[in-house]
Design goal:
The complex is a heterodimer of chains A (452) and B (60). Chain A is of the alpha/beta class and 452 residues long. Chain A has one domain: Alpha-Beta Complex (Amidase signature (AS) enzymes). Helix content of chain A is 36%, strand content 14%. Chain A contains 14 helices and 15 strands. Chain A has an eleven-stranded mixed β-sheet with strand order 1-3-2-6-8-7-14-15-11-9-10, with helices on both faces. A two-stranded antiparallel sheet of chain A has the order 4-5. The longest helix of chain A has 22 residues. Chain B has 60 residues and is mainly α. Chain B has a domain of 36 residues. Classes of the chains: A alpha/beta (452), B mainly alpha (60). Chains A and B meet through helix 9, helix 10, helix 11 and helix 12 of A and helix 1 and helix 2 of B.
Protein backbone atom coordinates (compact mmCIF):
# COMPACT_ATOMS: atom_id res chain seq x y z
CA UNK A 1 0.00 0.00 0.00
CA UNK A 2 1.09 3.55 -0.68
CA UNK A 3 2.45 4.77 2.68
CA UNK A 4 0.65 8.10 2.35
CA UNK A 5 -2.63 6.16 2.47
CA UNK A 6 -1.70 4.19 5.59
CA UNK A 7 -3.62 4.67 8.85
CA UNK A 8 -0.53 6.03 10.58
CA UNK A 9 0.74 8.29 7.78
CA UNK A 10 1.95 11.61 9.22
CA UNK A 11 0.39 14.78 7.83
CA UNK A 12 3.67 16.16 6.52
CA UNK A 13 4.39 12.92 4.59
CA UNK A 14 0.93 12.99 3.00
CA UNK A 15 1.38 16.63 1.96
CA UNK A 16 4.83 16.01 0.59
CA UNK A 17 3.62 13.18 -1.66
CA UNK A 18 0.53 15.07 -2.78
CA UNK A 19 2.62 18.12 -3.66
CA UNK A 20 5.01 15.90 -5.67
CA UNK A 21 1.99 14.38 -7.49
CA UNK A 22 2.95 10.89 -6.30
CA UNK A 23 -0.57 10.56 -5.01
CA UNK A 24 -3.68 12.68 -5.48
CA UNK A 25 -5.57 14.51 -2.76
CA UNK A 26 -8.68 12.66 -3.97
CA UNK A 27 -7.02 9.30 -3.28
CA UNK A 28 -5.98 10.50 0.20
CA UNK A 29 -9.51 11.65 1.02
CA UNK A 30 -11.13 8.48 -0.34
CA UNK A 31 -8.78 6.43 1.85
CA UNK A 32 -9.60 8.58 4.89
CA UNK A 33 -13.33 8.19 4.27
CA UNK A 34 -12.87 4.42 4.03
CA UNK A 35 -10.98 4.39 7.34
CA UNK A 36 -13.69 6.48 8.99
CA UNK A 37 -16.40 4.17 7.62
CA UNK A 38 -14.53 1.12 8.89
CA UNK A 39 -13.61 2.37 12.37
CA UNK A 40 -16.20 4.90 13.40
CA UNK A 41 -19.05 2.48 13.94
CA UNK A 42 -17.10 1.19 16.94
CA UNK A 43 -15.15 4.31 18.02
CA UNK A 44 -17.82 6.92 17.29
CA UNK A 45 -15.43 9.85 17.04
CA UNK A 46 -17.43 11.78 14.40
CA UNK A 47 -20.76 13.52 14.84
CA UNK A 48 -20.80 14.52 11.15
CA UNK A 49 -18.72 13.31 8.21
CA UNK A 50 -18.54 16.00 5.51
CA UNK A 51 -17.73 13.60 2.67
CA UNK A 52 -19.08 15.61 -0.28
CA UNK A 53 -17.41 18.78 0.82
CA UNK A 54 -14.11 16.97 1.45
CA UNK A 55 -14.13 15.33 -2.00
CA UNK A 56 -14.86 18.68 -3.68
CA UNK A 57 -12.02 20.30 -1.80
CA UNK A 58 -9.68 17.46 -2.75
CA UNK A 59 -10.54 17.94 -6.42
CA UNK A 60 -9.66 21.63 -6.15
CA UNK A 61 -6.32 20.79 -4.49
CA UNK A 62 -5.49 18.33 -7.29
CA UNK A 63 -6.46 20.88 -9.95
CA UNK A 64 -4.23 23.49 -8.30
CA UNK A 65 -1.27 21.13 -8.29
CA UNK A 66 -1.80 20.11 -11.91
CA UNK A 67 -1.96 23.81 -12.80
CA UNK A 68 1.38 24.35 -11.09
CA UNK A 69 0.06 26.37 -8.18
CA UNK A 70 1.35 25.93 -4.62
CA UNK A 71 -1.25 23.84 -2.81
CA UNK A 72 0.19 24.62 0.62
CA UNK A 73 2.24 22.84 3.30
CA UNK A 74 -0.70 20.62 4.26
CA UNK A 75 -1.83 19.81 0.71
CA UNK A 76 -4.39 17.02 0.78
CA UNK A 77 -4.10 16.36 4.52
CA UNK A 78 -7.41 15.25 6.05
CA UNK A 79 -8.33 16.88 9.35
CA UNK A 80 -11.41 17.12 11.53
CA UNK A 81 -12.56 19.50 14.23
CA UNK A 82 -14.27 19.42 17.59
CA UNK A 83 -18.01 19.95 17.10
CA UNK A 84 -17.88 23.45 18.64
CA UNK A 85 -15.98 24.78 15.59
CA UNK A 86 -17.95 26.09 12.59
CA UNK A 87 -17.75 24.16 9.33
CA UNK A 88 -19.68 25.88 6.53
CA UNK A 89 -22.76 23.85 5.65
CA UNK A 90 -22.68 21.82 8.87
CA UNK A 91 -24.67 22.41 12.09
CA UNK A 92 -22.32 23.37 14.92
CA UNK A 93 -23.78 21.24 17.70
CA UNK A 94 -21.13 21.61 20.43
CA UNK A 95 -22.27 18.12 21.35
CA UNK A 96 -25.65 19.33 22.57
CA UNK A 97 -29.26 18.56 21.66
CA UNK A 98 -29.86 22.26 22.22
CA UNK A 99 -28.09 23.05 18.95
CA UNK A 100 -28.80 20.11 16.65
CA UNK A 101 -31.67 21.98 14.95
CA UNK A 102 -29.69 25.22 14.55
CA UNK A 103 -29.06 26.57 11.06
CA UNK A 104 -25.90 25.29 9.41
CA UNK A 105 -22.81 27.49 9.69
CA UNK A 106 -22.58 30.00 6.85
CA UNK A 107 -18.82 30.21 6.83
CA UNK A 108 -15.93 28.23 8.25
CA UNK A 109 -14.38 29.18 11.56
CA UNK A 110 -11.15 31.10 11.08
CA UNK A 111 -9.11 28.13 12.32
CA UNK A 112 -10.71 25.90 9.68
CA UNK A 113 -10.14 28.54 7.02
CA UNK A 114 -6.45 28.83 7.91
CA UNK A 115 -5.84 25.07 7.73
CA UNK A 116 -7.72 24.86 4.44
CA UNK A 117 -5.71 27.76 3.05
CA UNK A 118 -2.66 25.61 3.75
CA UNK A 119 -4.18 22.79 1.68
CA UNK A 120 -5.69 20.68 4.47
CA UNK A 121 -9.14 19.18 3.90
CA UNK A 122 -11.86 19.20 6.55
CA UNK A 123 -13.53 15.79 6.99
CA UNK A 124 -16.16 16.79 9.54
CA UNK A 125 -17.08 17.38 13.16
CA UNK A 126 -15.90 15.38 16.16
CA UNK A 127 -17.75 14.31 19.29
CA UNK A 128 -17.25 16.07 22.61
CA UNK A 129 -18.74 16.33 26.07
CA UNK A 130 -21.89 18.42 25.86
CA UNK A 131 -20.89 22.09 25.53
CA UNK A 132 -17.40 21.13 26.67
CA UNK A 133 -18.68 20.25 30.12
CA UNK A 134 -16.88 17.05 31.07
CA UNK A 135 -13.79 14.95 30.70
CA UNK A 136 -14.91 11.60 29.31
CA UNK A 137 -16.91 12.30 26.08
CA UNK A 138 -19.83 10.24 27.35
CA UNK A 139 -22.28 12.34 25.39
CA UNK A 140 -25.93 11.59 26.12
CA UNK A 141 -27.25 12.88 22.76
CA UNK A 142 -24.63 11.62 20.30
CA UNK A 143 -23.50 8.63 22.36
CA UNK A 144 -20.11 8.00 23.92
CA UNK A 145 -16.85 8.09 22.02
CA UNK A 146 -14.72 5.03 22.74
CA UNK A 147 -10.98 4.88 23.23
CA UNK A 148 -9.53 3.16 20.13
CA UNK A 149 -6.90 1.43 22.30
CA UNK A 150 -9.64 -0.30 24.33
CA UNK A 151 -13.21 0.23 23.23
CA UNK A 152 -14.51 -0.31 26.77
CA UNK A 153 -12.64 2.78 27.94
CA UNK A 154 -13.09 6.53 27.67
CA UNK A 155 -10.92 8.59 25.32
CA UNK A 156 -11.05 11.42 27.88
CA UNK A 157 -12.62 14.75 27.08
CA UNK A 158 -13.97 17.08 26.31
CA UNK A 159 -12.10 16.84 22.97
CA UNK A 160 -12.47 13.06 23.09
CA UNK A 161 -13.60 12.70 19.48
CA UNK A 162 -10.51 14.59 18.30
CA UNK A 163 -8.11 12.36 20.23
CA UNK A 164 -9.96 9.17 19.27
CA UNK A 165 -10.03 10.05 15.55
CA UNK A 166 -6.24 10.42 15.65
CA UNK A 167 -5.63 7.30 17.72
CA UNK A 168 -7.85 5.24 15.40
CA UNK A 169 -5.94 6.44 12.35
CA UNK A 170 -8.97 8.14 10.80
CA UNK A 171 -7.17 11.48 10.32
CA UNK A 172 -3.60 12.63 11.04
CA UNK A 173 -4.60 16.07 12.31
CA UNK A 174 -7.46 17.40 14.44
CA UNK A 175 -8.52 20.48 16.35
CA UNK A 176 -9.69 20.45 19.93
CA UNK A 177 -10.56 23.05 22.53
CA UNK A 178 -9.02 23.35 25.98
CA UNK A 179 -10.27 25.22 29.02
CA UNK A 180 -9.30 23.10 32.02
CA UNK A 181 -7.58 20.31 30.09
CA UNK A 182 -9.91 19.32 27.28
CA UNK A 183 -7.09 18.86 24.76
CA UNK A 184 -4.35 17.66 27.10
CA UNK A 185 -6.39 15.07 28.97
CA UNK A 186 -7.73 13.10 25.97
CA UNK A 187 -4.34 13.40 24.28
CA UNK A 188 -2.83 11.58 27.26
CA UNK A 189 -5.49 8.87 27.39
CA UNK A 190 -5.42 8.24 23.63
CA UNK A 191 -1.64 8.48 23.19
CA UNK A 192 -1.47 11.47 20.83
CA UNK A 193 0.04 14.94 20.93
CA UNK A 194 -2.19 17.78 22.06
CA UNK A 195 -1.21 21.43 22.30
CA UNK A 196 -2.91 24.05 24.40
CA UNK A 197 -1.33 27.09 22.70
CA UNK A 198 -0.55 30.40 24.36
CA UNK A 199 -4.00 31.81 25.03
CA UNK A 200 -4.94 34.61 22.67
CA UNK A 201 -2.73 33.45 19.78
CA UNK A 202 -5.27 31.27 17.96
CA UNK A 203 -8.30 33.05 16.44
CA UNK A 204 -11.68 32.46 18.06
CA UNK A 205 -14.04 33.55 15.25
CA UNK A 206 -16.60 30.86 14.48
CA UNK A 207 -16.55 28.94 17.74
CA UNK A 208 -19.61 28.01 19.78
CA UNK A 209 -19.27 28.39 23.53
CA UNK A 210 -15.56 29.19 23.58
CA UNK A 211 -15.66 32.70 24.94
CA UNK A 212 -14.14 33.80 28.18
CA UNK A 213 -10.61 34.15 29.39
CA UNK A 214 -9.52 30.54 29.88
CA UNK A 215 -10.36 28.47 26.81
CA UNK A 216 -8.44 28.20 23.57
CA UNK A 217 -8.46 26.11 20.41
CA UNK A 218 -5.42 23.95 19.71
CA UNK A 219 -4.07 21.31 17.34
CA UNK A 220 -3.74 17.59 18.01
CA UNK A 221 -1.62 15.17 15.96
CA UNK A 222 0.45 11.99 16.03
CA UNK A 223 3.85 13.67 15.63
CA UNK A 224 5.59 16.73 17.02
CA UNK A 225 6.51 17.79 13.50
CA UNK A 226 2.87 17.77 12.32
CA UNK A 227 1.82 19.65 15.43
CA UNK A 228 4.44 22.35 14.84
CA UNK A 229 3.28 22.85 11.25
CA UNK A 230 -0.37 23.10 12.30
CA UNK A 231 0.47 25.49 15.10
CA UNK A 232 2.39 27.78 12.73
CA UNK A 233 -0.57 27.86 10.36
CA UNK A 234 -3.15 28.43 13.08
CA UNK A 235 -1.16 31.31 14.57
CA UNK A 236 -0.12 32.70 11.17
CA UNK A 237 3.55 32.41 12.06
CA UNK A 238 6.42 31.03 9.94
CA UNK A 239 6.97 27.31 10.46
CA UNK A 240 10.15 26.49 12.36
CA UNK A 241 11.26 22.88 12.22
CA UNK A 242 11.62 21.37 15.72
CA UNK A 243 15.24 21.06 16.81
CA UNK A 244 15.81 17.85 18.76
CA UNK A 245 19.27 19.05 19.73
CA UNK A 246 18.27 22.40 21.21
CA UNK A 247 19.98 23.26 24.50
CA UNK A 248 17.24 23.93 27.02
CA UNK A 249 16.89 24.28 30.78
CA UNK A 250 14.43 21.55 31.76
CA UNK A 251 13.07 20.73 35.21
CA UNK A 252 10.46 18.39 36.64
CA UNK A 253 7.57 19.58 38.80
CA UNK A 254 7.64 18.43 42.41
CA UNK A 255 5.18 18.56 45.33
CA UNK A 256 1.56 18.43 44.16
CA UNK A 257 2.66 16.85 40.88
CA UNK A 258 4.36 13.90 42.59
CA UNK A 259 1.27 12.75 44.47
CA UNK A 260 -1.86 11.02 43.20
CA UNK A 261 -0.06 9.25 40.38
CA UNK A 262 -0.44 5.60 39.61
CA UNK A 263 2.50 3.50 38.47
CA UNK A 264 2.00 4.17 34.73
CA UNK A 265 1.80 7.93 35.18
CA UNK A 266 4.76 8.10 37.57
CA UNK A 267 6.93 5.98 35.33
CA UNK A 268 6.04 8.13 32.29
CA UNK A 269 7.30 11.25 34.07
CA UNK A 270 10.41 9.45 35.31
CA UNK A 271 11.18 8.09 31.87
CA UNK A 272 10.91 11.54 30.28
CA UNK A 273 12.94 13.22 33.04
CA UNK A 274 15.67 10.61 32.71
CA UNK A 275 15.79 10.89 28.91
CA UNK A 276 16.04 14.68 29.10
CA UNK A 277 18.56 14.54 31.95
CA UNK A 278 16.16 16.78 33.88
CA UNK A 279 17.55 16.31 37.38
CA UNK A 280 16.24 19.56 38.75
CA UNK A 281 12.89 19.60 40.57
CA UNK A 282 10.86 22.80 40.85
CA UNK A 283 7.63 23.42 42.72
CA UNK A 284 4.96 24.90 40.48
CA UNK A 285 3.51 27.88 42.40
CA UNK A 286 0.40 27.27 44.52
CA UNK A 287 -1.23 24.55 42.37
CA UNK A 288 -4.21 23.99 44.68
CA UNK A 289 -5.41 27.59 44.53
CA UNK A 290 -4.48 27.84 40.85
CA UNK A 291 -6.78 24.88 40.20
CA UNK A 292 -9.54 26.48 42.25
CA UNK A 293 -9.19 29.82 40.46
CA UNK A 294 -9.21 28.32 36.97
CA UNK A 295 -12.21 26.16 37.83
CA UNK A 296 -14.21 29.10 39.21
CA UNK A 297 -13.35 31.40 36.33
CA UNK A 298 -14.24 28.75 33.79
CA UNK A 299 -17.46 27.87 35.63
CA UNK A 300 -18.66 31.48 35.64
CA UNK A 301 -17.67 32.08 32.04
CA UNK A 302 -19.19 28.82 30.79
CA UNK A 303 -22.62 29.96 31.97
CA UNK A 304 -22.57 33.28 30.12
CA UNK A 305 -25.47 33.34 27.68
CA UNK A 306 -26.96 30.07 28.95
CA UNK A 307 -29.80 31.51 31.05
CA UNK A 308 -32.36 31.71 28.21
CA UNK A 309 -31.79 28.02 27.39
CA UNK A 310 -31.86 27.04 31.06
CA UNK A 311 -35.20 28.82 31.43
CA UNK A 312 -36.89 27.60 28.25
CA UNK A 313 -35.19 24.37 27.18
CA UNK A 314 -33.80 22.82 30.36
CA UNK A 315 -34.90 19.34 29.26
CA UNK A 316 -32.69 19.55 26.16
CA UNK A 317 -29.55 19.54 28.32
CA UNK A 318 -28.03 16.38 29.61
CA UNK A 319 -29.16 16.40 33.25
CA UNK A 320 -25.63 16.52 34.64
CA UNK A 321 -24.64 19.37 32.34
CA UNK A 322 -27.83 21.28 33.15
CA UNK A 323 -27.33 21.06 36.90
CA UNK A 324 -23.76 22.27 36.58
CA UNK A 325 -24.76 25.16 34.31
CA UNK A 326 -27.48 26.22 36.75
CA UNK A 327 -24.95 26.31 39.60
CA UNK A 328 -22.46 28.16 37.39
CA UNK A 329 -25.08 30.75 36.44
CA UNK A 330 -25.67 31.59 40.10
CA UNK A 331 -22.09 32.26 41.21
CA UNK A 332 -21.43 35.59 42.93
CA UNK A 333 -19.42 38.11 40.95
CA UNK A 334 -17.00 38.45 43.86
CA UNK A 335 -16.00 34.77 43.54
CA UNK A 336 -15.21 35.28 39.89
CA UNK A 337 -13.40 38.57 40.39
CA UNK A 338 -11.35 37.25 43.28
CA UNK A 339 -10.42 34.20 41.22
CA UNK A 340 -9.30 36.47 38.38
CA UNK A 341 -7.31 38.59 40.82
CA UNK A 342 -5.59 35.49 42.19
CA UNK A 343 -5.00 34.29 38.65
CA UNK A 344 -3.21 37.50 37.66
CA UNK A 345 -0.92 37.22 40.68
CA UNK A 346 -0.38 33.50 40.03
CA UNK A 347 0.54 34.14 36.44
CA UNK A 348 3.30 36.52 37.53
CA UNK A 349 4.62 33.79 39.87
CA UNK A 350 4.61 31.25 37.04
CA UNK A 351 6.41 33.67 34.72
CA UNK A 352 9.04 34.21 37.42
CA UNK A 353 9.50 30.43 37.61
CA UNK A 354 9.77 30.22 33.82
CA UNK A 355 12.50 32.85 33.81
CA UNK A 356 14.70 30.23 35.50
CA UNK A 357 13.86 27.31 33.20
CA UNK A 358 12.67 26.83 29.61
CA UNK A 359 10.44 23.78 30.02
CA UNK A 360 8.74 22.13 33.00
CA UNK A 361 7.82 18.43 32.84
CA UNK A 362 4.60 17.44 34.62
CA UNK A 363 2.21 14.48 34.61
CA UNK A 364 -0.83 14.85 32.32
CA UNK A 365 -3.26 12.38 33.87
CA UNK A 366 -2.98 10.41 37.11
CA UNK A 367 -3.62 7.12 35.32
CA UNK A 368 -4.43 5.50 31.99
CA UNK A 369 -7.96 5.65 30.54
CA UNK A 370 -10.71 4.49 32.92
CA UNK A 371 -13.62 2.41 31.73
CA UNK A 372 -16.66 4.18 30.30
CA UNK A 373 -19.14 4.78 33.08
CA UNK A 374 -16.55 4.27 35.78
CA UNK A 375 -17.56 6.57 38.63
CA UNK A 376 -14.39 6.39 40.69
CA UNK A 377 -10.68 5.78 40.25
CA UNK A 378 -8.20 4.12 42.56
CA UNK A 379 -5.03 6.21 42.47
CA UNK A 380 -2.18 5.91 44.93
CA UNK A 381 -4.29 3.51 47.00
CA UNK A 382 -7.22 5.90 47.40
CA UNK A 383 -10.59 6.15 45.68
CA UNK A 384 -11.44 9.40 43.85
CA UNK A 385 -14.34 10.60 41.67
CA UNK A 386 -13.33 10.03 38.05
CA UNK A 387 -14.11 13.45 36.52
CA UNK A 388 -12.26 15.71 38.98
CA UNK A 389 -9.36 13.29 39.27
CA UNK A 390 -8.71 13.08 35.53
CA UNK A 391 -8.17 16.86 35.43
CA UNK A 392 -6.04 16.97 38.57
CA UNK A 393 -2.83 17.85 36.73
CA UNK A 394 -4.22 19.86 33.81
CA UNK A 395 -6.38 22.31 35.75
CA UNK A 396 -3.66 24.11 37.78
CA UNK A 397 -1.98 25.17 34.50
CA UNK A 398 -5.18 26.40 32.83
CA UNK A 399 -5.18 29.96 34.12
CA UNK A 400 -1.56 30.71 33.31
CA UNK A 401 -2.12 31.47 29.58
CA UNK A 402 1.09 29.49 28.98
CA UNK A 403 1.42 26.91 26.21
CA UNK A 404 1.21 23.30 27.38
CA UNK A 405 1.89 20.24 25.26
CA UNK A 406 0.82 16.70 26.05
CA UNK A 407 3.37 14.21 24.72
CA UNK A 408 2.53 10.48 24.42
CA UNK A 409 5.14 8.40 26.22
CA UNK A 410 6.15 5.04 24.82
CA UNK A 411 5.84 2.32 27.44
CA UNK A 412 5.16 -1.36 27.81
CA UNK A 413 1.56 -1.16 29.01
CA UNK A 414 -1.42 -1.85 26.73
CA UNK A 415 -2.90 1.63 27.25
CA UNK A 416 -1.22 4.93 26.40
CA UNK A 417 -0.37 7.75 28.76
CA UNK A 418 1.20 11.16 28.25
CA UNK A 419 3.06 13.85 30.16
CA UNK A 420 2.71 17.64 29.99
CA UNK A 421 5.40 20.12 29.00
CA UNK A 422 4.93 23.76 30.05
CA UNK A 423 6.78 26.81 28.65
CA UNK A 424 6.48 30.58 28.83
CA UNK A 425 3.88 32.34 26.65
CA UNK A 426 4.74 32.26 22.93
CA UNK A 427 7.53 29.73 23.54
CA UNK A 428 5.81 26.78 21.87
CA UNK A 429 9.05 26.20 19.95
CA UNK A 430 10.67 24.98 23.19
CA UNK A 431 7.88 22.44 23.58
CA UNK A 432 8.26 21.18 20.02
CA UNK A 433 12.04 20.93 20.46
CA UNK A 434 11.68 18.80 23.59
CA UNK A 435 9.00 16.65 21.96
CA UNK A 436 11.24 16.12 18.93
CA UNK A 437 14.10 15.09 21.22
CA UNK A 438 11.86 12.61 23.01
CA UNK A 439 10.72 11.22 19.65
CA UNK A 440 14.31 10.88 18.48
CA UNK A 441 15.19 9.04 21.69
CA UNK A 442 12.24 6.67 21.28
CA UNK A 443 10.68 7.93 24.50
CA UNK A 444 7.73 9.68 22.84
CA UNK A 445 5.60 7.72 20.44
CA UNK A 446 2.05 7.89 19.15
CA UNK A 447 0.75 4.55 17.97
CA UNK A 448 -2.41 3.97 15.95
CA UNK A 449 -4.62 1.55 17.84
CA UNK A 450 -5.17 -1.93 16.55
CA UNK A 451 -8.43 -2.68 18.42
CA UNK A 452 -10.54 -0.25 16.41
CA UNK B 1 -18.11 32.44 60.10
CA UNK B 2 -21.65 31.93 58.79
CA UNK B 3 -22.23 28.42 57.45
CA UNK B 4 -22.93 28.26 53.73
CA UNK B 5 -26.48 27.06 53.09
CA UNK B 6 -26.56 25.96 49.43
CA UNK B 7 -30.35 25.68 49.30
CA UNK B 8 -30.94 29.17 50.67
CA UNK B 9 -28.30 30.51 48.32
CA UNK B 10 -29.83 28.63 45.39
CA UNK B 11 -33.30 30.04 46.05
CA UNK B 12 -32.08 33.63 46.43
CA UNK B 13 -29.67 33.60 43.49
CA UNK B 14 -32.11 31.79 41.16
CA UNK B 15 -34.80 34.34 41.95
CA UNK B 16 -32.33 37.14 41.23
CA UNK B 17 -31.76 35.86 37.68
CA UNK B 18 -35.36 34.74 37.15
CA UNK B 19 -34.51 31.06 36.90
CA UNK B 20 -36.92 28.39 38.11
CA UNK B 21 -35.10 25.34 39.44
CA UNK B 22 -37.28 22.22 39.44
CA UNK B 23 -37.54 20.30 42.73
CA UNK B 24 -35.81 17.30 41.17
CA UNK B 25 -32.79 19.42 40.22
CA UNK B 26 -32.23 21.13 43.57
CA UNK B 27 -30.05 18.51 45.23
CA UNK B 28 -27.68 18.21 42.27
CA UNK B 29 -27.42 21.98 41.85
CA UNK B 30 -26.83 22.38 45.59
CA UNK B 31 -24.07 19.75 45.46
CA UNK B 32 -22.38 21.72 42.68
CA UNK B 33 -22.71 24.91 44.71
CA UNK B 34 -21.09 23.27 47.74
CA UNK B 35 -18.15 22.15 45.59
CA UNK B 36 -17.73 25.62 44.07
CA UNK B 37 -18.10 27.30 47.45
CA UNK B 38 -15.25 25.17 48.78
CA UNK B 39 -13.06 26.32 45.87
CA UNK B 40 -14.03 29.94 46.44
CA UNK B 41 -13.14 29.67 50.12
CA UNK B 42 -9.61 28.58 49.21
CA UNK B 43 -9.21 31.86 47.33
CA UNK B 44 -11.13 34.17 49.64
CA UNK B 45 -8.93 32.99 52.52
CA UNK B 46 -5.82 34.02 50.57
CA UNK B 47 -4.72 37.63 50.48
CA UNK B 48 -3.44 38.30 46.99
CA UNK B 49 -0.34 40.50 47.18
CA UNK B 50 -0.93 43.95 45.71
CA UNK B 51 2.29 43.90 43.73
CA UNK B 52 2.43 42.26 40.32
CA UNK B 53 -1.30 41.85 39.74
CA UNK B 54 -1.30 44.69 37.24
CA UNK B 55 1.61 43.50 35.15
CA UNK B 56 0.03 40.12 34.52
CA UNK B 57 -3.41 41.34 33.46
CA UNK B 58 -2.82 41.01 29.72
CA UNK B 59 -2.99 37.35 28.70
CA UNK B 60 -1.01 37.98 25.54
Amino acid sequence: MNDALARDAPAHCIASRVRRREISACEVIDAALERIAAADSSVHAFTHVAATRAREHARRIDEAIVAGRDAGPLAGVPFAVKAMIDIAGVVTSAGSALHVHDATARIDAEVVRRLQSAGAICMGALNMDELGMGGTTENSHFGPTRNPHDLARTPGGSSGGSAAALAAGMVPLALGGDALGSIRLPASLCGVYGLRPTRGTVPTAGLLGAGGTISTIGPMARSAFDLAIAHAILTDQPHREPNAGASLRIATAGGYFRDRLDRDAASAVERVAHALDANRTIDFPDPVRAKAAATLVNASESAVGRLPALRAHASDFDSGTRDRFIAHALLPAQWYLHAQRFRAWHKSEVLAMLARIDVLVLPATPCVAPRLGQATLIVDGQEWPTGPMLGWFTQPLAGTDCPVLTVPVAHDGPLPIGIQLLAAPRCEHHLFDVAARLEALGVASSTVATSS
Amino acid sequence: MTAFDPYAFLDAAAAAVDLAVAPGQRDAVAANLVRLHALAQQLLDFEVPERSTQQAQDPS
